Amino acid sequence: MEGSFLLEARSQLGLSALLYLAAFGTKLYALIKDKNWDNLLFRPLLYSGFLFHSWGLYLRGLSTQSLPFSNPFEIFQVIGWLAVVLVLIFRAVTQMQLLSFFGTGLAALLGTISLQASSWDYAFTPTLMNNPWIPFHAALAIFSYSLFSLAALTALMYLIQDYGLSAKRGHMLFSHLPSLKQLDAISSRFLHVGVIILSMAVVLGSMNWFAAKDVITLPKLIAAWTIWAAYLFLLLLKHYKQLHPGVFCKACLLLFILALVALWPLNRGLHARGIPPYTHHG
Amino acid sequence: MPEVSRLIPTMADTPLEKSLFLLGSSHHVAPLHVRERFALNKDTSARLYNQLYQIPQVEECLLLNTCNRVEIYGFAHRTKSLQNHLLDCFCTTNTLPQEEFSRYSIWKEGLAVVKHLFEVVSGTDSQMVGETEILGQVKNSFENAQQASYLGPVLNRLFQKSFQAAKWIRTNTDIGRGQVSLGNVATTLALRIFENLNECKILVLGTGEVGQQVVKAFKSRGGHNITVASRDLAHAKKQAQLSEGQALSIAEVPQQLDSFDIIIGASGAAKHILTQKLLKPILNQRTDKPLFLIDLAVPRNFESSIERLSNVYLYNLDDLAKIAQENQKARASELQKCQAVLTEKAEYLWVNLNDAHMASSSSKSPNQEPAVLSPS
């Protein structure tokens, strides 16, 4: 029963990644070709992708009887899902153009990467969730990652707009993008909130380190503190106007990629202890 | 309108001694760095007019000097040496090597001149196809030449008809729809940098017409914090009053540069007003604030190497036109329609001009001296 749920969850998540990819491709084609019909396809594809994504994560939680962020596969999936939720809310509140387009791109990318890396999807250790502070720490950390993912998205949008202006291009894509000032301000705010949430997560994680040394290894703790310190340093540089917006945006993107890469060593300890991947259950 | 194609005399078969001519250079044949060397100022324009009038073959002439073109329109006895005389006149007045101007210039005669002028005045030959500023600029040049008595019946009629043709095109076609003015392109770019123009401080260098048109566009999109700088503070104050802004002397600009977000260069200064050396320390003080520079002047007001500085976006006339052209694909069929109508109108006028003036005696009185040309 658990195995069928897991398989079904993976296929739902795979379908959602495909739908996000289709939404992204449709919008990209419409932008390149300067067409206006894209919303007829883009939104249904985005919403159905989101529905399958949510259903897949629900089935996943049902099968494991826990919050679905115990291995890199699930963490990538949850970060992608939270990013889409935040994009949908933020888009509705601010009417910011093209944010949902870039959001589908990110969700498709995270979904595809996590589905391709079958070794990431290993069984979690049940002792992990015995202490209620641990899942709370994990939930906060993952939420901060989704905020960093939006900071990285808006930073990417800034760099594209900056390229368009520097290369003196007036294509539809550039004219639909928000202004540099708006993108700079929004990525700073996402980073700001992300750092606050990650600080809480890191403090909680550190407080529980002594009680759960087998789960929270020292390398994991050091990696978490390093990522937090890097984001805090970037935020301070930005706050004291020591960085050009372009450099800040490049740093946002790079740090997010590094933070995602760091998820692998962060969770490697569990896998190294011989816990078999879910994908091998059959 | 009668069918005119069979009536049109060509240069090869016409027995007439006089014809229209055009010598000039524009964005079609010369890049911006070359055009800025060809540009005429008040003094060189007046000297060139006087020299042209000394050429015995030339009966009527008009100088059109805009950001994107320098053109001499005339009516003269056709001789083999006319083109060389005109080239010599232009290059001597503007201290240019003849080979350079020949390389980047065009020469037209007869009906081709009429067609060309119609396209210029209607904006279909402009760098930003469909723009309307050119009509005002040609009208100004026409009035100046008329006041100074450089015009006669042929050019008078030719230009009047070109204004009518431009009006027809503007009223009956969609060539001017959408983003086709410098002002519109500049404001659209500014909105890609700044969220809204309300909070932007705008500095305009110079009190020229093109700069003021861009200021108008900025004002219509919410930009109200405007400062006008000029070498002549009284001029600046007068223009600032019209724009409901503040005035500044050009000499004071370097001290106040750091407070501006958008700077429009529209001054007739012969040297660069803003240089990389001047801007670099200012940009270090405003790390997180972008700076938008729009150089509408020919010769340019801003050193081109400024665009290498980070957080600075520098656009000159060619760059703005390139952006406008990217949005003009939709108007390609409209342009063809306009060109067909203008050709028909030009051919009709050419037949009438031939009938009325080409074979007539000289309209340039031997004793007639042109008046001193008023500054444009």
Oligomer: heterodimer
The average pLDDT value of chain A, as a whole number, equals 84
Kindly report the average pLDDT value of chain B. Answer: 84
Considering DSSP H and I runs of 4 or more, what fraction of the residues of chain A is helical?
over 70%
Which bin fits the share of residues in helices of chain B? 40-55%
CATH architecture of the largest domain in chain B: 2-Layer Sandwich
Strand order of the largest sheet of chain B: 7-6-5-8-9-10
In angstroms, what is the radius of gyration of chain A? 19 Å
Low-confidence stretches of chain B: 1-16, 370-376
Distance between the termini of chain A: 11 Å
Most extensive interface between two protein chains, with residue counts: A-B, 24 and 22 residues
- One letter per element, helices H and strands E, the order of chain B comes to EHHEEHHEHHHHEHEHEHEHEEHH
| Beta-strand percent range of chain B | 15-25%
Instruction: Tell me the number of strands of chain A.
Output: 0
Q: Give the full name of the CATH homologous superfamily of the largest domain in chain B.
A: Glutamyl-tRNA reductase, N-terminal domain
Largest sheet: number of strands, sense, barrel closure of chain B: 6 strands, parallel
- Please report the number of helical segments of chain B: 14
